[in-house]
Design brief:
Strand content: 5-15%
Strand order of the largest sheet: 5-4-3-6-7
Helix content: 40-55%
Distance between the termini: 69 Å
CATH architecture of the largest domain: 2-Layer Sandwich
Number of domains: 4
CATH topology of the largest domain: Nucleotidyltransferase, domain 5
Structural class: alpha/beta
CATH class of the largest domain: Alpha Beta
Number of helices: 17
Length: 435
């Protein structure tokens, strides 16, 4: 009797000594098995023996195919698909023609689908879990897995750690597939992902950063709440319709719903803006201050750049109103900000620079987070077509008012979370934080 995975076997001649089996019907998963069995029978000297040998060989191939299907374990998602098809009255044969394996090409055998259906009929809550000890032996030991993870974590900041490199370091990886090595790292929540677009904190500045964290930890929260944060940024206005097209695309964000197989990856609607367009166009330079959870801005004149005189004038004209009683200021280390003139102007307002604030530490200056929120709001209100300077400045002030009204809670949180930022920095041993 033929196994359920093959319906009919026809022989070329009932009286042939060789009795070579021919395939009439078979499911796709056993097609190769039936084709291979054509050569079975040989010169056995007996039609009965030839037929018996053919059947034995066919059964062996069927067993191998079934084992392959068993080893390719149904995922919870695939079990759910089988259950859904069962709900609509489909049988194992029809489901096997519909359901594809994770490679997206090959199909599950009827036997494997039927086994899955039997388990679902016996236990409707089953989701593909494999019984303890029923799978193949693990190819690596727990000690080897730990050794692999430890090496990756230790070396990923010094060299490009690929699976090829891991093979040169660990002889026991010989014979194991790349996907298995990736799975072992995946079990430790490691995946091959793009590095974050953040600059590192170099060794020169790490002691300063850690000393600052210690200083902040010793301060009371009500003192930290009085700190003000100041810095500048630059926006670029499109000069041509081509530049505006890139700006419109950038406003859509960095993510899009694309086909998982990548067939639409190069479609125009799935592409991002040009990387060269980031700092092109007419510059609009802005200076701002975050204090008491409120953002203030000042737009510099066209062609004007921040220098000692401009900053001193800004302090004298704007800072007293912006500070609203705050007497501590966080600012970066650009030379024009720490020249005698602006420092004297701050002293006249009874404002002190925060003691011990470290160099190259934008992640501690809360106003940097404001610029990101502001850019997001500007992207959300981007008009069609090229925008002139005056129209942009009007829209910029409107975006700031919107932030102060609708993002008040977030602004207040970011202006008073220095302790959280410092805790993150200490955990990273002085390294750059997510802020």
């Amino acid at each position: 009797m033929c196994p359920p995975s093959c319906k009919v076997l026809l022989y070329d001649s009932p009286h042939s000594l060789h009795r070579v089996p021919l395939v009439s019907h078979q499911c796709t998963s056993t097609a190769n098995i039936c084709r291979h069995s054509r050569a079975v029978g040989g010169h056995c000297g007996s039609s009965v023996l030839g037929e018996t040998s053919a059947m034995i060989c066919f059964w062996l191939f069927s067993l191998v195919c079934h084992l392959i299907d068993v080893m390719s374990q149904f995922s919870s998602f695939e079990v759910g698909q089988v259950k859904a098809h069962m709900h609509h009255g489909l049988g194992a044969v029809k489901i096997s023609r519909i359901l594809l394996k994770p490679d997206g090409k090959s199909q599950w055998s009827v036997t494997a689908v039927q086994d899955c259906m039997d388990k679902l009929n016996a236990d409707s809550s089953w989701r593909g879990e494999r019984a303890e000890g029923s799978g193949p032996p693990r190819a690596t030991t727990k000690a080897q897995d730990k050794q692999l993870v430890k090496y990756v974590l230790a070396e990923r900041g010094r060299r490009k750690v690929t699976i090829g490199l891991l093979r040169t370091q660990f002889a026991w990886l010989k014979g194991l597939s790349d996907s298995l090595v990736a799975d072992r790292l995946g079990e430790a929540d490691l995946a091959w992902l793009r590095r974050r677009g953040k600059s590192i904190a170099t060794k020169t500045y790490i002691p300063e950063r850690l000393a600052y964290c210690k200083l902040v930890a010793a301060k009371q929260q009500r003192t930290l709440d009085t700190w003000a944060y100041t810095d500048g940024t630059t926006f670029y206005l499109d000069r041509t319709s081509d530049e505006n097209e890139h700006t419109q695309r950038a406003a859509l964000g960095g993510f899009v719903w694309r086909r998982t197989d990548g067939r639409d990856a190069m479609f125009a609607e799935c592409l991002g803006p040009s990387s060269y367009a980031k700092a092109q166009g007419h510059p609009v330079r802005v200076w701002g201050m975050l204090v008491w959870g409120h953002l203030y801005i000042h737009v510099l004149e066209a062609g004007e750049v921040m220098n000692e005189d401009v900053y001193t004038e800004l302090i004298e004209d704007k800072f007293e109103g912006w500070l609203d009683g705050s007497s501590y200021l966080v600012q970066d280390f650009e030379r024009c900000l720490r020249c005698p003139k602006p420092l004297h102007a701050l002293e006249q307002l009874n404002v002190e620079l925060v003691e011990g604030y470290p160099r190259c530490s934008q992640d501690f200056n809360a106003i940097e987070n404001m610029w990101k929120i502001l850019r997001g709001r500007l992207a959300a209100t981007l008009p069609l077509g090229v925008e002139d300077r005056e129209a942009f400045i009007t829209r910029l002030h409107s975006a700031v008012r919107w932030m102060n009204r609708h993002e008040r809670k977030q602004l207040w949180y970011l202006s008073r979370n220095q302790k959280e930022r410092c805790r993150d920095c200490v955990l990273l041993k002085g390294g750059r934080t997510k802020w």
